[in-house]
């Protein structure tokens, strides 16, 4: 074997190894760039989805609060009616209760 030829073969192998290393490095860099891009896209989608859900939630709250206001008003009216009814009933029964209490407290049983 010719020593120059063997040296040239080794040099070719070293050059091929360096080229392969550059290809692998380029592939890794491309892969990392694509992973970063995919992560950014996923974060944007998550942000969009969260804002969409938040919008729907706010919309449902505003719709239900409208009905809540009407429910509160209805309950206030019903409460006032019940209070008025109780006052009328107590004003009718009050004299009878007072008479009964006076009678029972002043009457002595043997």
From TrEMBL:
Ranges in coiled-coil conformation: 25-59
| Lineage top rank: taxon | Eukaryota
- What GO cellular component entries does it have? vacuolar proton-transporting V-type ATPase, V1 domain
Which NCBIfam families does this one have? V_ATP_synt_G (TIGR01147)
Q: Specify the protein name.
A: V-type proton ATPase subunit G
Oligomeric and partner information: V-ATPase is a heteromultimeric enzyme composed of a peripheral catalytic V1 complex (components A to H) attached to an integral membrane V0 proton pore complex (components: a, c, c', c'' and d).
PANTHER family (alphabetical): V-TYPE PROTON ATPASE SUBUNIT G3, VACUOLAR ATP SYNTHASE SUBUNIT G
One Pfam family, please name it: V-ATPase_G
State the species of origin. Buddleja alternifolia
Q: Does the keyword Transport apply?
A: yes
Key words, A-Z = Coiled coil, Hydrogen ion transport, Ion transport, Transport
Q: What does this protein do?
A: Subunit of the V1 complex of vacuolar(H+)-ATPase (V-ATPase), a multisubunit enzyme composed of a peripheral complex (V1) that hydrolyzes ATP and a membrane integral complex (V0) that translocates protons. V-ATPase is responsible for acidifying and maintaining the pH of intracellular compartments and in some cell types, is targeted to the plasma membrane, where it is responsible for acidifying the extracellular environment. Catalytic subunit of the peripheral V1 complex of vacuolar ATPase (V-ATPase). V-ATPase is responsible for acidifying a variety of intracellular compartments in eukaryotic cells.
Give a GO molecular function annotation for the protein: ATP hydrolysis activity
Q: State the family named in the UniProt similarity comment for this chain.
A: Belongs to the V-ATPase G subunit family.
- Which InterPro entries does the protein's record reference? V-ATPase_G
